[in-house]
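Homework help thread (please don't just give me the answer)

Our assignment gives two proteins as sequence + structure token strings and asks us to describe the second one. The first is just a warm-up. Here they are:
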Amino acid sequence: MKGEDEDMDLGIRGKRALVCAGSKGLGRGCAEALAGAGVDLVLNARGAEALEAAAADLRARFGVSVVTVAADVTDPEGRDRVIAAAEGIDILVTNAGGPPPGLWSDWSRDDFIKALDANMLTPIALMQAALPGMIARGWGRVVNITSGSVKAPIPQLGLSNTARTGLTGFVAGTARQVARHGVTINNLLPGIHDTGRPVALDTGVTKAEGISMEEARAKRAATIPAGRYGTAAEFGAACAFLCSQHAGFIVGQNLLLDGGAINATI
């Protein structure tokens, strides 16, 4: 008899997913959760070494097929290679690091275009490549990893605020156009998770304030109602659920995973 605590069957075993920036951090969490559900992967990241190590680990632990494409998905040539390898996918998880911080007066037109290319136009291009096949087969899932900044702007991340909000607008309309075909598009909005980026931010705080890493982490964790950083595994679990057979009625939504850090009613 199966135990009551056994994992929920997501109903996507044998499906095929493209996970971008999937060798580390939140992308890796998503790749692991999908592999755990029996999904075969096309895994993309820029660094070949970390990518191959992640792929070998996923194959060994979950027995799924993992095709790797070492490429910068924000570069047209790299994106074309990723799209070619991912032909016929059922699930798309887009993910790209954010542009650098700064002040509103710092940025030129070129800075904005670079941010739009990476964090709006690249995920749109990946969706435009994947959606026709999903529609033709009558089933598909798209999850875009964006940022809590689309709910509450982060002042020093104006480039990211701009580009990711633009993507959110595109998804809002497109998700409602494709839903009738059994295809859902949703966004996951991370807050602070225990990955490389917060470590870099916390390191900056230690230097600026002359405190230890433990003190810097404790200070940041105290701003989160959950009292801790999120984990890549729980972020991945949320992604896998949105990609599951159980999530077909969740359309065009923005799911915030931030431990309650953004203080908002809706």
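The one we have to describe:
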Amino acid sequence: MHANDVAALIDPVLAALRRRPDVEAPELRSHDAADRLLLELAASDHAEAVVGREVVVIGDTHGALTLGALALGARHVRVHQDSIVAERALAANAAALGLSAYSHHPLAEVASTDARLALVRLPRAFDALDAIARAVARGSDPGVGLLAAGMVKHMSLGANDVLRGSFGRLDVSLAKRKARALVARSPLPAGEIAELEPARARDRDLGLEVVAVPGAFAGASVDIGARALIAELDGAPRVGAGGTVIDLACGTGLIATTLARLNPAARVVASDVSAAAVASARLTAAANGVDVEVAQDDGLGAQPDASAELIALNPPFHVGAAVHTGIAHRLFAEAARVLRPGGELWVVWNSHLRYSPALERAVGPTRQVARGPKFTVTASTRR
């Protein structure tokens, strides 16, 4: 397909995309050069695997790849997105564009023997890429091609080695608009490719076992922000029977597990946008013998107003690859909505971010619990 024809098909789609319900800001985009490169390569080098066929898309953030593939003539797109916010952004953009021939699938089930092409946004974590490569190689036709792209500044040679673990041939594209693609072909026989098992580790200092499925933030380790917050939770109010305690943006569930130990009679909820985080939190709670309700949710959308006595939060400070405070501010507002008057929000944050005024505005009076060179822990009382 000629470059002008490709542009005529995909440009209207990319121009119409919005990030909602994800954070929207002038400096944040709904697609980038890596998305465009994947679509251009799909149309120019793999048109026979796109037009009239089923295509697999993994890691789409707001719908550029899924809806772009449909605009290029794909009959149907099988999609895996780790984030529920990404799923909802795709749905909103699909409705706005009138494109609906796609379906969501767990990673282990997203590949199809009917599909000859998988378009993949390169994840940062190699274990996540390994799980993706294995899923595509094990579940696809032997003629499948896997196109994985990212921005050059975020790529490393280690990704090549990961893909070679599941595919017999790997080619690397030239950089274009500061993006580059890896093209994997000739999947190894399915019998030679096992599914990745969750990673497990015991943290002696915390006395907790961490379990992480591929792609979970920090893996089977304890990130230093979570460690700083857990160290102070013994000073948080205790919640008894009939009360609710929440670990918001729970990751692998270590904070939720700690809260369950400290509040054995309370209902403990762990919530995260990430499917990998939710699966990991369930496994971590079970490995430590505590009862935690785990939910994949955008913030605390499933929780009623004024329903919790205590919320703990280790907020992300990245939106995609960009350092941005937008998600943290949204989570502060969600916590304020769900806390009962007098309830407390305990937050750990990078000290240079100086979130105290924002917490005061969103939640209520905020006191400093602990402060170090890197992290500050605060407690805010709901007005």
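TA reply:
I won't write it for you, but here's a hint about the kind of observation we're looking for: The mean pLDDT is 95.
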